[in-house]
Amino acid sequence: MTRWIGTSWKMNKTLAEARAYARGLDEALSSRPELTDGVQPFIIPPHTALAAVASELSSDSPGVGSAPGVHLGAQNAHWEDSGAWTGEVSVPQVKDAGAVLLEIGHSERREHFAETVETTRRKVEAALRHELIPLLCIGESAQIRQQGGTADFLLDQARGALQGLTEEQLSRVLIAYEPIWAIGAQGRPAEVDELLEPFDVLHEEYGGRVEALLYGGSVTPENAAQLLGIPGVQGLFIGRAAWSLQGYLELLQLAARPSAA
Ligand code: PGA
């Protein structure tokens, strides 16, 4: 089983910072291939840095990056291929800049930028149409959890975004479960017990059908091994703890086959 271990930089990093991180990553993975033994790394810079990161990672690997196939992703893209959509970028554009993966439906986009189940559905479809890997983020608020509605809410978000896909298309999708209350500086790290039921439900519905189910929300080198031990968890989607290259490398090492330890 491949573990998907990746990070979105959200709205962080200048071009120089992005290049330095990518160059360092390329060097580290080339000199320490054991870090990606059994692991598929992916990084999701802001749009402004996509092409620069792609060129730092570029050699001759599949996807982007030599460094044992680091997948490059975009944090968002419009569902239309082109047109009068001021301020947006399209899937063909992020693909042109080097992305092979598209993050869709992060809770920050749902909360602040009016992302809905319907727009996530359109974006999943657009990503697949252009042969990008959709990384669909789903997750409940603290309120929904308190009311006992987590399982239904997650299934509604996932089913809504993935409706109409063939099994072959579904097999290319990544789903990241990211409870809103566990994300970011205002979040509190989830206890393992709180994640068992959601992963049980998601595994029941999507296990073996999607590429992988990931967990995200306050992941750190301290809790990563425990989180990866939860049944159904096949990867981690990381924010703050992987914004430094050192932090990301530490997390890769924790996820790689024991020979890397
Ligand atoms: P965090 O972010 O690791 O900083 O909590 C996770 C995410 O938003 O995906």
Describe this protein with a few key phrases.
single chain; 261 residues; alpha/beta; TIM Barrel; 8 strands; 15% strand; globular; binds 2-phosphoglycolic acid
Secondary-structure map with pairings?
Blueprint: E1 3-8, H1 15-31, E2 39-44, H2 50-57, E3 71-74, H3 91-96, E4 101-104, H4 107-112, H5 117-129, E5 133-138, H6 142-146, H7 150-162, H8 167-170, E6 174-177, H9 192-206, E7 212-216, H10 224-228, E8 235-238, H11 245-255
Parallel strand pairs: 1-2, 1-8, 2-3, 3-4, 4-5, 5-6, 6-7, 7-8
The protein binds 2-phosphoglycolic acid.
Write a brief structural summary.
The chain has 261 residues and is α/β, with parallel strands linked by helices. Helix content is 39%, strand content 15%.
Structural class, by secondary structure, is alpha/beta
The beta-strand count equals 8
Based on the coordinates given, report the CATH architecture: Alpha-Beta Barrel
The averaged pLDDT comes out at: 94
Intertermini distance? 18 Å
How much helix, percentage-wise, in residues? 25-40%
- Low-confidence parts: 60-67
Structure description:
The chain has helices at residues 15-31, 50-57, 91-96, 107-112, 117-129, 142-146, 150-162, 167-170, 192-206, 224-228, 245-255; strands spanning 3-8, 39-44, 71-74, 101-104, 133-138, 174-177, 212-216, 235-238. It is of the alpha/beta class and 261 residues long. It has an 8-stranded parallel barrel with strand order 1-2-3-4-5-6-7-8, surrounded by 5 helices. Strand 7, helix 10 (224-228) and strand 8 form a beta-alpha-beta unit. Helix 5 (117-129) packs across helix 7 and helix 7 (150-162) runs parallel beside helix 9 (192-206). The two termini are 18 Å apart. 2-phosphoglycolic acid binds at residues 8, 178, 183-184, 187, 216-219, 237-241.
